[in-house]
Amino acid sequence: MPMALEVEGLCKSYGKKEAVRNVSFSIEEGKIFGLMGMNGAGKTTILRMLATLLRPDRGDARIAGHSIVKEPDQVRRCISYLPDEAGAYRTMKGIRYLEFIAGLYFSDEKEQAECVERGKNICGLGEALDQKINTYSRGMTRKLVLARTVMTRPRLAILDEPTSGLDVLNSLDIRKTIRQCTVEYGTAFLLSSHHMQEVHTTADCGAIMKDGQFLATGTIAELLSQYQAENLEQAFEKAVRGI
Amino acid sequence: MMNLLRKELSELMNRQTVLSLIVSFVMIVMIGTMVTSLMSQEVAGGATVHIIDEDNTPLTQSVISLLEEQGCSVETGSDFETMAQTKQWTEAVVFPAGMTAAFENHETAELPVYTELTTTSAVKMSMTAGSAERVIDALKTCLADQYLDEELSFLENPVKSKPYTRANGVTVQVSANAVITSLAMFDQVMPLVLFLLVVLTAQTIITAICSEKLDKTLETLLSAPISRGKIIGAKMLAALLVSLLYAAVYGAGFLCSILFTAANGQTTENIDISGAFSEIVQTRTAIQELGLQMPGAAWAGVIAQLALTLAIALTAAIILGALTEDAKNAQYACMPIVLCTIFPYMLSMVSDIRGMEGAAKWLMLAIPFTHTFIATSCMRFHDYALFWGGMVYQAVFLGGVIWFALRLYSSDILFVHSRKLRGNMKKSV
């Protein structure tokens, strides 16, 4: 299976604090990788480096064969990034927001229209798309921004805490959408989460992080087996607390 | 209560606020010192009177002696043109040949009063004017002493001043005040509009970028396949268009106020319309003769410089917006732009920046916005070297701030709230 992402020795410091230390991993096309870690573990820094927003101090990553250090412009054509608790332009209508994002990725009008159509189907907001975003609930906004992330059919979708602050049903809808996109578009997902259950049910593989380093990485089954745990929550606790 | 107050203060008084306060303090002290110094120079200059004594009689000598007794420094010369060129005279009263003879015949005499126009600032002109009145008052006093025992009607108004204005090397018989009043409609209002435009648009763009950062829509934009230049360009263009809309609305409002005032004056005031109209036409003709009328190309130049100033202010706002950490600080972040605008604006109101000397002048010219505040003055008084020099400086300055903005938006600084700007700027994506 071709690789959507290959990370090699990624490092990043903020002043004297080492936020990410020599991180390496890879994701196959159409697979979901879950980054698990406590607050401040370095998850968002990794995601921002892969989204070409931060420059690594050392190391590199290749997304669909393009280096994030040497070819950030090409990388941006292959990725789509959803920041933690990201909003949308509040005074825009939902549909206009999807059209705006489609316009950033495609110059051809037909491709733009197809992209928006995909976005409409993915978010499932129906007539609410004709309303302004400032009238949306948190769940609706999240569905809209997730739809704009995946409607461009990126090779790699980078999602920072995609279900953070959502109720159970909205979270379930988001997870279903993610799984559906891997099948339909072959998109690979890199998502960070505090919810072990979410990673357990959504991801194919993952990594547990602490203080900017990977403590363990592998498929979900491998992680459970490595820590002799019944679920990821147990595995995470054992890994982080060193039990 | 104290607990709440402490929390509010700690949120408002951060390092950015303190820095902004220090910069404000320094700039206000500088503005105050410079304005006070300029005003005292102007007032001191007003104590000097210039007289061209073509009559040279005991009466004119006694007027000069009286002025000196009153504490005035009296300078005399042969003709105004030469004295304006060589001694930088800005005003002079002429005692014409035959003036004393006219008084002896109990006739009113006409006194030519010359004014050298170097600026269209009404405040500056009002500060320097006044020496002619002083001379005429002294002359009246001397005449009253001379004809103490006589009941003469001509003594009620023995002299009539005949104003001449000199500008761009040309002298025309017109009152300098009439010229300034006629030009003030644009020259006094344009700086105010410019000041409001710069401050409003800068504030708008800083707040917009700040909310983009908070909503994390900026991260979405910057990770999309679109160049940083296009993102910054679109932001600047949008803000520029909005600011031009503001300018159009201000301009239209100002025009309406003039039309309404004129219409109101015509219907309610009992004025001599034809007389007033002929005076306006006369002043307009004089303005043309003095070379103060701006042709279309000059207006285009001034508008181009206005656009450059707005572009600099907007780019600076884009930079400041990127460095602002939260919405509360967005208000303070605009302060450097406000101060750099208010400084030349105030000085252009009370002084002639072009006529300043030494370090103060260069300090003022180093502020890129200054050049737009003096642009019309440069054009009216044919100071083309300063105008074009200023425009080149503004263009270079704009290039510099755009380069810096592009570097900033390609660096870590947007997402790393660290004050180590240099270090993070090096880490360009």
Note the main attributes of this structure.
heterodimer, A: 243 residues, alpha/beta, Rossmann fold, six-stranded mixed β-sheet, four-stranded antiparallel β-sheet, 9 helices, 40% helix, 27% strand, B: 429 residues, abc type-2 transporter like fold, 2 domains, elongated
Describe this structure in a few short sentences.
The complex is a heterodimer of chains A (243) and B (429). Chain A has 243 residues and is α/β, with parallel strands linked by helices.
Using DSSP, what is the number of strands of chain A?
10
Our Rg estimate of chain B from Cα atoms comes to 28 Å
Mean pLDDT of chain B: 81
Q: What's the name of the CATH homologous superfamily of the domain at 3-85 and 155-241 in chain A?
A: P-loop containing nucleotide triphosphate hydrolases
Structural class of chain A: alpha/beta
Largest sheet of chain B: 6 strands, mixed
CATH topology of the domain at 3-85 and 155-241 in chain A: Rossmann fold
| Domains of chain B (count) | 2
Tally the beta strands of chain B: 6
CATH C-level class of the domain at 3-85 and 155-241 in chain A is Alpha Beta
In whole angstroms, how far apart are the ends of chain A? 35 Å
Overall geometry of chain A comes to globular
Name the poorly predicted regions of chain B: none
Biggest interface reads: A-B, 30 and 22 residues
What percentage of the residues of chain A does DSSP assign to strands (E)?
Answer: 25-35%
Unreliable spans of chain A: none
Q: What's the multimeric state?
A: heterodimer
Order of helices and strands of chain B: HHEHEHEHEHHEEHHHHHHHHHHHHH
Strand order of the largest sheet of chain B: 2-1-3-4-5-6
Describe the structure.
The complex is a heterodimer of chains A (243) and B (429). Chain A has a domain at 3-85 and 155-241: Rossmann fold. Chain A contains nine helices and ten strands. Chain A has helices at residues 43-50, 72-78, 94-105, 109-123, 138-150, 168-185, 196-202, 220-226, 232-241, and strands at 3-14, 17-28, 32-37, 58-63, 66-67, 79-82, 156-160, 188-193, 205-210, 213-219. In chain A, the strands form two sheets. In chain A, strands 6-7-8-3-9-10 form a six-stranded mixed sheet, with helices on both faces. In chain A, strands 2-1-4-5 form a four-stranded antiparallel sheet, covered by helices on one side. Chain B is α/β, with parallel strands linked by helices and 429 residues long. In chain B, strands 2-1-3-4-5-6 form a six-stranded mixed sheet, with helices on both faces. In chain B, helix 3 (58-69) links the parallel strand 1 and strand 2 (73-76). In chain B, helix 9 (189-215) runs parallel beside helix 13 and helix 11 (228-268) packs across helix 13. The longest helix of chain B has 41 residues, at 228-268. The relative contact order of chain B is 0.11. The mean pLDDT of chain B is 81. Classes of the chains: A alpha/beta (243), B alpha/beta (429). The A-B interface holds A 14-15, 48, 51-55, 57, 72-73, 76-77, 79-90, 101, 104-105, 145, 148 and B 215-217, 219-227, 411-412, 414-416, 418, 420, 427-429.
